[in-house]
Design goal:
Chain lengths: 115, 114
Amino acid sequence: EPEVTQTPSHQVTQMGQEVILRCVPISNHLYFYWYRQILGQKVEFLVSFYNNEISEKSEIFDDQFSVERPDGSNFTLKIRSTKLEDSAMYFCASSGERGWSDTQYFGPGTRLTVL
Amino acid sequence: ILNVEQSPQSLHVQEGDSTNFTCSFPSSNFYALHWYRWETAKSPEALFVMTLNGDEKKKGRISATLNTKEGYSYLYIKGSQPEDSATYLCAFNRGGGATNKLIFGTGTLLAVQP
């Protein structure tokens, strides 16, 4: 069964460093997402991406964040200058052509720890 | 501010017990309600996407109902097994074509004792 994969599973970085989290969505999906869960809090939406551009972003997704689909298979989230409060589990998800009524399939997450 | 609430926060049951939990969401501009099952260190597993008032969906021993007028969904597990132990998340979408964003509840942590 097709699945969303994410690498690395755990990333430790120093405050102020840049990190890139990688995702391989399900191959025929058209919508791509990043969510995150800070420890003890709800899973929260960061950004959605469709047709090679951001379709929606939350207020969390400021200028420090960017997303890219560099080669038609990978989907990346870059944090330019990490802060302590960026420590969280980051989930990538993808869904098919029906958009809002379609299932979003999630990857296993990347745990980001900012020291 | 849109809020999705789940109750209870956690539940401990014995193997063979049937159980249910609740997801409450804003009833205005409803489009879809998603249920996920999430085991630690694994991907959240999609269980159901529900869009119509009165919807009932079933997958094995797990079923769900939806009431969009009053803003709640129930998830039922019949004859719980230890492998059902997980966090069950619901997520709400209210934007239709304008947004695919999911708004999540805090989850219900289910522990099934053998």
